[in-house]
Amino acid sequence: MTHPTIGHPTLDMLRRAQIVPVIDLDDVDDVVPLAEALLAGGITTMEITLRTDAAIPGIERITRHVDAGDMLVGSGTVLSSDDVDRSVDAGARYLVCPGYSAEVVERARHHDVAVLPGVATGTELQTAVVAGVTAVKLFPAGVIGGVAAIKAFAGPFPQMWVMPSGGVDIANARNYLAQPTVFAVGGSWIAPRRAIRARDFAGITATARTTTERLAEPNDG
């Protein structure tokens, strides 16, 4: 079966970006220097999770102060229709969920914003296929089998694009991205919460640069 197009144009942008840093933001004043640090290291997107009070203001600030053509900002840990509405109103270009919710998927479609519902089982993947979803977040990827799980799911679901998250790091990102159904990977290793709190933006840039350079290296195999 030929792999279909990924669907929403924003998802195609994520496919070109490949690496999606997962951000837990505690202080909204950190978000612009964080975005600039990621961009300096070659990372062009960031998923700000709705786990903190600074998340929505942080998305709004990125939208106002960082060129949308440079940094593609998304909202993570999207759990409800209200989360969808708040994220879209703040300027999020895509939504990432830890699990599958038909209500969230439909609300995202109402706003014409890209959504990556979370899946961990064949039942959830089949639900996504029936709903017309073209791309999902596989979470927690490391716990449910990593690359082996992706290969297994690709048998019955070759049409589904996958973004693994949870247990992805600089050591295994290339192995994930080498899988035909994987379009991007998500993870917190580039901008961990402790580094953001310490305002170690130079360190974040260095990690981002190391990651992008490693991904650009020719494959040995």
Question: How does the SSE layout of this entry go?
Answer:
Elements: H1 9-17, E1 19-23, H2 31-40, E2 45-49, H3 55-65, E3 72-76, H4 81-90, E4 94-96, H5 102-111, E5 114-116, E6 118-119, H6 122-130, E7 135-138, H7 146-154, E8 161-164, H8 173-177, E9 185-187, H9 193-197, H10 201-216
Parallel strand pairs: 1-2, 1-9, 2-3, 3-4, 4-5, 6-7, 7-8
Helix pairs in contact: 2-10, 3-4, 4-5
Provide tags for this entry:
single chain; 221 residues; alpha/beta; TIM Barrel; six-stranded parallel sheet; three-stranded parallel sheet; 10 helices; 15% strand; globular
Detailed description of the structure:
The chain is 43% helix and 15% strand. With 221 residues, the chain is an alpha/beta fold. It has one domain: TIM Barrel (Alpha-Beta Barrel), CATH 3.20.20.70. A 6-stranded parallel beta sheet has the order 5-4-3-2-1-9, with helices on both faces. Strands 6-7-8 form a 3-stranded parallel beta sheet. Helix 4 (81-90) runs parallel beside helix 5. The longest helix has 16 residues, at 201-216. It is globular. The model has no long low-confidence stretch (mean pLDDT 95).
